Amino acid sequence: AQTVTQSQPEMSVQEAETVTLSCTYDTSESDYYLFWYKQPPSRQMILVIRQEAYKQQNATENRFSVNFQKAAKSFSLKISDSQLGDAAMYFCAYRSEETSGSRLTFGEGTQLTVNP
Amino acid sequence: KAGVTQTPRYLIKTRGQQVTLSCSPISGHRSVSWYQQTPGQGLQFLFEYFSETQRNKGNFPGRFSGRQFSNSRSEMNVSTLELGDSALYLCASSLITGYAYEQYFGPGTRLTVT
């Protein structure tokens, strides 16, 4: 079974600064997808960024980018120019291409605080 | 296009009762997945339905069940409620199951069991 680990329960960053959230995963599969989701206090899960394992190029969405290291099974999220609205719980998630349909396996989450 | 809707948003039940939660996916989406979120266990996959068939099931007891209707709306049922069932229940819809299709989450149903 796949597992996802987020070793930072809490992180904080100053507004306009850059922060990196860590995620590692364990899998024996070669085809899969990785995601970062954001859950603000409203509890609505919002997709931040997605990475296909077969793509070597790291995904980027505006101020959000990832560092995907397939061999190391590492998938970190970098938030540049942090904004107050980025404050939320961030979840790293794994989805198998091979076996599990749309099933997501989530990490424990990292609570991000943005200080003005 | 309307997002994923879940009803009710909040629910209080007593131990031993049963509860039914509803999820309406985005129009045209045929896959619906359910997740349980608790402070202790985090986010855990319950099951996924696609075209009225259970596609995948997580590691939950048989008290947790679900179904999907022909219009893709889904319900999940929890029988004989226990205190530990108190959680935020999230559903997510996607166009089809698997592949690279994005899942869109609903706002959740907060269930409190007393």
Describe this structure in words.
The complex is a heterodimer of chains A (116) and B (114). In chain A, 0% of the residues lie in helices and 52% in strands. With 116 residues, chain A is mostly beta strands. In chain A, the strands form 3 sheets. In chain A, strands 2, 5, 6, 10, 11 and 12 form a 6-stranded mixed sheet that branches. Chain A has a 4-stranded antiparallel sheet with strand order 3-9-8-7, with no helix packed on it. Chain B is 0% helix and 53% strand. In chain B, the strands form 2 sheets. In chain B, strands 2, 4, 5, 6, 9, 10 and 11 form a 7-stranded mixed sheet that branches. In chain B, strands 1-3-8-7 form a 4-stranded antiparallel sheet, with no helix packed on it. The termini of chain B are far apart. The interface between A and B is medium-sized, with 23 and 28 residues.
User: How large, in whole angstroms, is the Cα Rg of chain B?
Assistant: 13 Å
Q: Which residue ranges of chain B are poorly predicted, with pLDDT under 50 across at least 5 consecutive positions?
A: none
Helix coverage percent of chain B: under 10%
Helix share, percent of chain A = under 10%
| Rg over CA atoms of chain A | 14 Å
The beta-strand count of chain A equals 12
Shape of chain A: globular
Oligomer: heterodimer
Poorly predicted sequence stretches spanning 5 or more consecutive residues of chain A: none
User: Helix-strand pattern of chain A, N to C?
Assistant: EEEEEEEEEEEE
Q: How does the overall form of chain B come out from the CA principal axes?
A: globular
- Please tell me the overall pLDDT of chain A: 94
Query: So how many helices of chain B?
Result: 0
Strand content of chain A: over 45%
Q: Tell me which protein chains meet in the greatest interface and how many residues each side has.
A: A-B, 23 and 28 residues
| Biggest pleated-sheet summary of chain B | 7 strands, mixed
Major beta-sheet overview of chain A: 6 strands, mixed
